[in-house]
Each structure stands twice: as structure tokens, then as C-alpha cells.
Write a structure and sequence with these properties.
binds zinc ion; binds adenosine monophosphate; five-stranded antiparallel sheet
Length: 142
């Protein structure tokens, strides 16, 4: 289980800096985000230093996705949240700031101030849409 010394989340795993832990098993750790968008905002991390979900062993990724809805529903009960968002920022352009892969579990409340929105685009044509899908399909279903 390679952890690295200058990574804040590896330090949390090693207990070198404190965290508000909400879940732990042999593969993953979950703790409250220190700068939450809502109360109960939780981060799930693999106990392996991987910067990106793309290089993370599936055994860790599978456990992260398995535990995420359990944390979400538990936060609904604990805080009276009405739902939750799951998201993972992968890469600078996607907003990743901590280079140890992590999934966000964000409890949602009707009157909260969270904004997750974007102006929807339109494909230029049905052909363009079909071409994008086909290219991805061919790579993913080899
Ligand atoms: P991201 O933008 O997806 O890389 O998210 C990184 C998250 O890590 C941010 O929401 C930070 O508030 C959170 N964070 C950074 N350091 C800590 C820490 N020591 N304990 C808890 N959360 C942290
Ligand atoms: Zn790390």
C-alpha cells in the first residue's frame, strides 16, 4: 500500500494529521471535508496513493463506489438531508486540487446554496453526436 510523505491525504491515512472520520475499512477511508459545501460533505479516499481514478486499482474504485451511497443515505438520516451528489474531480481542468484520488459525497438540502449547473450545449447535428458515441463505443467495447 504505497503512501507518500508530502500528500495531505496520505498523512490523514497514517494518522499524522487529524480528520473527522466517518468510515474506514481495509481499502478506503472517509472523512468530512474541511471546507464543506454543506454540512456532512464527505471525502472517500483509497488507502493507496494514486493521483487519478484512471490509475487506481479497480478493487479500490469498486469499494469507493460501493460505500458512497451508504455514506450519502447515512448523512440524510444524520442531518435530515433530502438527497446527495456524488462527484469526483479528475485533473486540474475538472477542479482537482488534492492529488490523491477522492470522491465527494455532498448531502443536499432544498434551500442550500450549492450551485451545480452549466448552460447546456447542443450538438451541431445528429451525425456529430452519433460519431462521438461511435468513436467512444469502439474504444470501450473492443
Ligand atoms: P478537489 O477539489 O476535488 O481536489 O477537492 C479537494 C477537497 O479536499 C477540498 O474540498 C478541500 O476542502 C478538501 N481538503 C483539503 N485538505 C483537507 C483536510 N486536511 N481535511 C479534509 N478535507 C481537506
Ligand atoms: Zn496520497
Amino acid at each position: 500500500m504505497p503512501l507518500i510523505n508530502d500528500c495531505v491525504f496520505c498523512k490523514i491515512i497514517k494518522g499524522e494529521i487529524p480528520s473527522s472520520k466517518v468510515y474506514e475499512d481495509d481499502l478506503v477511508l472517509a472523512f468530512l471535508d474541511i471546507a464543506p459545501f454543506n454540512y456532512g460533505h464527505t471525502l472517500i479516499i483509497p488507502k493507496d496513493h494514486q493521483t487519478s481514478i484512471t490509475t487506481l486499482d479497480e478493487i479500490y474504485a469498486n469499494r469507493m463506489i460501493a460505500i458512497a451511497p451508504k455514506i450519502g443515505t447515512t448523512m440524510m438520516r444524520v442531518l435530515g438531508a433530502e438527497g446527495f451528489n456524488l462527484f469526483l474531480n479528475n485533473g486540474t481542468v475538472a477542479g482537482q486540487t488534492v492529488w490523491h484520488c477522492h470522491m465527494h459525497v455532498l448531502p443536499r438540502f432544498t434551500e442550500d446554496k450549492v450551485i451545480i449547473s452549466s448552460e447546456p450545449l447542443k450538438y451541431e447535428s445528429k451525425d456529430q453526436m452519433a460519431e462521438i458515441a461511435q468513436k467512444a463505443f469502439d474504444k470501450l467495447n473492443k
